[in-house]
Design brief:
The protein is mainly alpha-helical and about 130 residues long. It is built from seven helices and no strands.
């Protein structure tokens, strides 16, 4: 009996309302992310924006997008560049660390080639195992 009372128009409007609510929430998260990503504004101003976003969401979202929307993309790009730089540093650091067996094998190859002496080989071996 419940489904008999719900018409296709009611279902359409419910889906449409959910869609717009979802969009509103996504915009709110984007604004909050941008707000806390920006280090140029003070904590008090951030707090005022958060209060405004909670009390009057649609109006304050519109005002935020009009006043600060131009820099949102730039701040997101800067954050992505910082994250990419940290990742690249981590990969380079991890790649530079070789297993002790690889270091010893490379030192042995240098010893066999006559590039280093047996004493230098022992020092490299001790350093790799340390």
């Amino acid at each position: 009996m419940l489904f008999a009372e719900i018409g296709s128009g009611d279902l359409f409007w419910s889906i449409l309302e959910f869609f717009f609510l979802f969009i509103l929430i996504m915009i709110l998260f984007q604004i909050l992310g941008d707000l806390f990503r920006d280090h140029t504004i003070s904590g008090g101003v951030k707090a005022l924006w958060v209060v405004a976003l909670i009390l009057i969401p649609p109006f304050s979202m519109l005002v935020y997008l009009i006043t600060r929307g131009g820099g949102m993309a730039q701040r997101a790009i800067e954050q992505q560049k910082a994250v990419q730089s940290q990742f690249n540093d981590y990969v380079e650091e991890s790649a530079a660390k070789r297993a002790p067996a690889d270091q010893i094998a490379q030192a042995k190859a240098l010893l066999d080639a006559g590039t280093i002496t047996a004493d230098e080989f022992d020092k490299l071996k001790a350093k790799a195992l340390a």
